[in-house]
């Protein structure tokens, strides 16, 4: 079965040149809402976007908001001068189809200067690499105080993180378990959002490593081997799109499929955050259209942990381990009803009731201060042909 593509062109001027960036999708296309930062109203943003998990582009945010001097200072040359000898983690094999499907890549620790040199030389290493999700306070400590959070990030989950992409980089489509603020310091980013329906985007099998859920669909070059059912699911998604320019910010919600391309060499920053409160974010997840995606993410973490000897103790203490896990991720406290609901979903989904009954007779309930730790497995890397090691973190 074949599907016709819908297309839209975004016209842009950059560095004295005119470009036409084409967004295409076999389903419907819709631009993301946008405002100019000078018109930003915090209460309006909270009520109409953050609370409703609706994405928003904020144009010229770094020129208007008090976000420090990063926008002024952070060129490739400046970062290299200040932090060139710092050690950073660089993803390799990013041109491989398995990377674009979120399945595999290797990670190499190198000096930041070496990565910059590759970008300047435009050699094979640069075209096959990506400096991604680098914790600025750790990896770029010398300049970390030059960046401040925008006004709507009031409860930080993690970050800020630095990303430096070569011109033409395609990042695999995935969803994160946090609200996201993406800011372009230099360059351009084309962003496509596909909503929160997990199965419409053909996710990698449960148990895939890392903190995100990845899609197996290459949104630029749809694979010929995809079945009609998979293609129909993809067609049923609505693609919301934008072109982020220097100084622009994009808010998009947790558990929203997103694909990001860099048509130019791009320096960007993101933070993961949530609603203010001790139980607000998780309540929003459980009462919104993101609920199924949230549960799928939990199922993926459970599946990651199943091969390890510690899983039996985790299962025997599932409710308390789950509470501790989500407190670490989001700084939120599950109430008893929420914990019971999520645990019941886990037990039903994996058919664990009989195993749980057997464990109840083995005395595996924790007696120390902390319950058995439910871990995200493989935060740093995924196994590939040349990398069989799994980072057990």
Describe this structure in words.
The protein has about 400 residues and is an alpha+beta fold. It is built from 15 helices and 18 strands. A 9-stranded mixed β-sheet has the order 4-5-16-12-18-9-8-6-7. Helix 11 (about 290-305) packs across helix 14 and helix 13 crosses helix 14. The two termini are about 40 Å apart. Residues about 380-393 have low confidence and may be disordered.
How is this fold's topology laid out?
Layout: E1 6-14, E2 17-25, E3 28-31, E4 34-36, H1 42-50, E5 56-59, H2 61-64, H3 70-73, H4 76-83, E6 87-92, H5 97-100, E7 106-111, H6 112-121, H7 124-127, E8 129-135, H8 136-139, E9 156-165, E10 169-170, E11 174-175, E12 179-186, E13 189-193, E14 213-214, H9 228-235, E15 238-244, E16 249-252, E17 258-262, E18 266-273, H10 280-287, H11 291-305, H12 311-316, H13 318-330, H14 336-350, H15 353-359
Parallel strand pairs: 3-15, 4-5
Antiparallel strand pairs: 1-2, 5-16, 6-7, 6-8, 8-9, 9-18, 10-17, 11-14, 12-16, 12-18, 13-15, 13-17
Helix pairs in contact: 11-14, 13-14
Report a brief summary of the structure.
By secondary structure, the chain is α+β, with helices and mostly antiparallel strands.
């Amino acid at each position: 079965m074949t599907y016709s593509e819908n297309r839209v062109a975004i016209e842009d001027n950059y560095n004295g040149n005119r470009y036409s960036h084409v967004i295409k999708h076999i389903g419907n296309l819709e631009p993301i809402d946008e405002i100019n930062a000078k018109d930003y109203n915090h209460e309006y943003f909270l009520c109409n976007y953050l609370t409703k998990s609706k994405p928003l582009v904020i144009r010229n945010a770094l020129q208007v908001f008090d976000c420090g001097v990063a926008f002024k200072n952070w060129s490739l040359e400046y970062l290299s001068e200040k932090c060139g000898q710092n050690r950073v983690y660089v993803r390799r094999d990013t041109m491989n189809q398995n990377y674009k499907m979120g399945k595999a890549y290797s990670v190499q620790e190198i000096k930041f200067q070496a990565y910059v040199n590759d970008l300047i030389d435009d050699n094979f290493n640069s075209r096959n690499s990506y400096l991604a999700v680098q914790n600025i306070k750790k990896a770029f400590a010398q300049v970390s105080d030059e960046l401040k959070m925008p006004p709507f990030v009031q409860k930080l989950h993690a970050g800020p993180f630095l990303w430096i992409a070569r011109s033409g980089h395609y990042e695999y489509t995935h969803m994160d378990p946090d609200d996201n603020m993406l800011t372009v310091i230099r360059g351009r980013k084309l962003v496509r959002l596909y909503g929160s329906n997990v199965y419409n985007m053909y996710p990698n099998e449960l148990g895939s490593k890392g903190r995100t859920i990845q899609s197996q669909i290459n949104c630029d070059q749809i694979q010929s081997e995809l079945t009609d059912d998979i293609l129909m699911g993809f067609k049923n998604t609505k693609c919301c799109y934008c072109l982020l320019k220097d100084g622009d910010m994009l808010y998009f919600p947790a558990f929203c499929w997103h694909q990001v391309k860099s048509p130019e060499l791009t320096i960007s920053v993101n933070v993961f955050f949530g609603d203010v409160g001790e139980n607000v974010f998780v309540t929003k997840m459980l009462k919104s259209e993101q609920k199924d995606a949230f549960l799928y993410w939990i199922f993926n973490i459970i599946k990651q942990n199943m091969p390890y000897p510690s899983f039996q103790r985790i299962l025997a203490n599932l409710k308390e381990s789950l509470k501790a896990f989500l407190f670490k991720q989001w700084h939120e406290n599950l109430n008893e009803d929420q914990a019971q609901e999520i645990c019941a979903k886990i037990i039903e989904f994996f058919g664990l009731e009989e195993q749980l009954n057997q464990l109840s007779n083995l005395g595996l309930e924790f007696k120390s201060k902390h319950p058995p730790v439910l871990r995200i497995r493989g935060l740093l890397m995924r196994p590939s042909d040349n990398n069989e090691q799994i980072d057990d973190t």
